[in-house]
Design a protein that fits this description.
There is one protein chain. By secondary structure, this protein is mostly helical. The protein has one domain (2-214). It has helices at 2-32, 40-56, 61-82, 91-113, 136-158, 160-170, 172-177, 182-208, 215-229, 233-254, 257-274; strands at 126-129, 132-135. It has a two-stranded antiparallel sheet. Strand 1 and strand 2 form a beta hairpin. The longest helix has 31 residues, at 2-32.
Length: 287
């Protein structure tokens, strides 16, 4: 009995860390900035490859996560300055532009690096609890997800920069009238969301590997989680991730991962039918 409880807990915790990691960057870019970035999955893919080539260059795997965050963060700021900033408030144009960017990145990486899957090892071994052996790297991912979520919340909630960002997203004209460089705020916010996505891509490499088309697997889950979370991006993402992780973890452990994903989709449909504004739709304050 205890072993089964441990197994369920680990599976749910692992699923929660995946949902949080793949959704956190999108919660900032889409949830806060209202930019539908269809290339978000490819940003994650770029982070995965940046990590792999950083390791090949001689860095250890943990430093490669930071390299991936910096590389993709800078790339995100370039994309915002060269493409996204001309499309704020133009939903259809943003969809088409980011979809084109997605296709370009997939094609470019496939041409340069090939279609094969690459990976790096994070051989931390296993930890045994109640006779059940669990990969230590899965526990590391849970800690990483919790730390990133807490740091992001603290940044937006308790720092001057976070206050400026939230004020700019709510009323850019008023923020500009008060002397805020709104263009810089948009660029840095988009870059921060991109950096988290790049970090996530690197963190997932030891488990899932990296391939040019890997982003397509995560982008739907990320959008479902952020949309189901509602208008408070970080709180909503954490809440929706917990709900979906419980369903995915239990169903996947009892049956298969495919049925777990189907269960998450069905629950998301019912949730949005009952709560059209998401789980945080009735709340007014916070991030």
């Amino acid at each position: 009995m205890l072993q089964q409880v441990v197994a369920y807990s680990y599976q749910i915790g692992f699923s929660f860390s995946i949902f949080v990691l793949i959704s956190l960057g999108l919660a900032i870019i889409f949830g806060m900035m209202r930019v539908i970035n269809l290339a978000q999955g490819e940003f994650l893919m770029l982070g995965a490859y940046a990590s792999i080539y950083a390791v090949k260059a001689g860095l250890n795997i943990w430093l490669s996560f930071l390299v991936a965050a910096v590389v993709v963060g800078i790339f995100g700021m370039v994309v915002e300055r060269m493409l996204i900033r001309f499309l704020y408030g133009r939903l259809l144009d943003t969809l088409l532009a980011t979809w084109g960017l997605s296709l370009f990145l997939v094609g470019g990486v496939t041409t340069l690096l090939g279609p094969q899957t690459e990976s790096v090892a994070a051989d931390l071994g296993f930890v045994t609890i109640s006779g059940l052996a669990m990969p230590k790297y899965g526990l590391v991912l849970m800690v990483i997800a919790g730390v990133l979520l807490a740091l992001s919340w603290s940044l937006w909630r308790y720092t001057r920069f976070g206050l400026i960002v939230r004020g700019t997203m709510q009323n850019a004209h008023m923020a500009s009238a008060m002397g805020v460089n709104t263009g810089r705020v948009y660029m840095l916010t988009f870059g921060f969301g991109s950096a988290i996505t790049g970090f996530t891509g690197a963190a997932l490499v030891p488990i899932f590997g990296a391939s040019p088309t890997m982003g397509g697997y995560y982008i739907a889950k990320a959008f479902i989680t952020v949309i189901s979370g509602g208008p408070l991006p970080l709180l909503g993402t954490a809440t929706a991730s917990a709900l979906f992780a419980t369903i995915d973890g239990v169903v996947s452990y009892r049956t298969s991962s495919v049925l777990g994903e189907i269960g998450v989709l069905l629950v998301a449909i019912v949730l949005l039918r009952l709560l059209p504004l998401g789980v945080t739709g009735r709340l007014r304050h916070g991030v």
